[in-house]
Amino acid sequence: MSSSPSFVLRYVSDYSLADLKSMVSEFFDVKDAFIDVAGNPTFILQMEPVKLKFKEFSKRMLDLQLFPILRRSETSLILKVFSRPKPRQERKGLGLILFIATLTTIFIAGYVLWTGNRLWNEILMPNSNPYIQAAIYTACLASIIGSHELGHKIACSRHALSASTPYFIPGFPPFGTFGAIISLKDPPANRDELFDIGISGPLSGFIVMMLVILISMVLGVQVPESQAKALEEQNLVGPVYWPNSPLIFIGLFWIVESLKLVTMPQGWTLILGQTLFAAWVGSLVTFLNLLPIWQLDGGHISRAVFSRKGHQYTSILGLGILILSGYWFFALFLIFLMAASKHAWSAAEPLEDVSPLSKSRKLFYAVILFILILCFVTPPI
């Protein structure tokens, strides 16, 4: 998950209005320049395509510790210049401490899952070392969540945006973690950058999650169908079906079976272990993050696609999906955070909110919705 920067904008600088007008005029056709009632330099610009111009202009302004924001009126473009806010100081070492703590809690969760599962530690693999199994679970789940945050960092680096260290959140069994969060120190320049930052984390985590699903099939145990049926009668195993399991599970299982990537004797079946549960958690995290709500990754994506008003509507839709899907507690938690936030329904705002999202990204949004559907899963009973 990525969050937008939070600060109050105002202009405090040695640059005069004339100095700023000279800088702005190098890039845009300035129709008027004045100081608004709040004391902020304001420029009325001629209507024109501005995406490439503004990106170069904003880089120069940020180097001068200035913060340009461009919006559209009915007849012109309005550019306001603020002082660049100072980001909050990061606590040195806190990110590493939380990462180690989260690895520890995931390991504990993996140990509890294995030792509390009679099917695996007593029947299928009674001689297996529980610490090794806990370590495998930790590696799988941490890889999914870690790749999610790494995706955000790579996107920020690609667009020359400063972002905080990922802060992993320790949790309790059976998950062992509540995910992680990364904060932008500066807003993205335009909707394209906002889209890329929002999509990068869930997409990276989704790819690694598919690898974990395949790993779970490799680590699974093959048993005769008669034994599997007996275990099912004891409620120790069950079939993989939607919506208790996400469609991505069913789809990958079908592909592997069709291509005969995992060979089994006639009359045998495959029982999957707790690495599949790590993938299930990863699917849940991806589904929740892609919902178009507030400052979730999906919220940033929908803000880039639909603009401010559309983002508010999709946030309401996303909260409705959460409640109808059984995740009412998470929906209430988000509503509480939104009510307590100064930004309420707002997602991250790009500096330049005039240019539309690129056509290729609009098309790729359909892929994001498809991934959202593939990862949908109902809460465990």
Describe this structure as you would to a colleague:
The protein has 381 residues and is α+β, with helices and mostly antiparallel strands. The chain folds into two domains: 12-83, Gyrase A, domain 2 (2-Layer Sandwich), CATH 3.30.1360; 94-290 and 351-375, no CATH class. The protein has helices spanning 17-25, 51-63, 94-115, 118-124, 130-158, 191-219, 225-233, 247-258, 274-290, 297-325, 328-340, 359-375; strands spanning 2-3, 30-35, 41-45, 66-72, 77-83, 167-170, 177-183, 221-224, 268-271. It is elongated. The two termini are 26 Å apart.
Shape: elongated
> Pairing-aware structural class of the strands and helices?
alpha+beta
Spans where pLDDT lies below 50 across 5 or more residues: none
What order do the strands of the largest sheet run in, or round the barrel if closed?
Answer: 2-3-5-4
H/E element sequence: EHEEHEEHHHEEHEHHEHHHH
Rg value:
25 Å
Provide the helix percentage: 40-55%
Q: DSSP helix count?
A: 12
What percentage of amino acids are in beta strands? 5-15%
Distance between the termini: 26 Å
Largest sheet: 4 strands, antiparallel
Please indicate the count of domains.
Answer: 2
Mean pLDDT: 93
Number of strands: 9
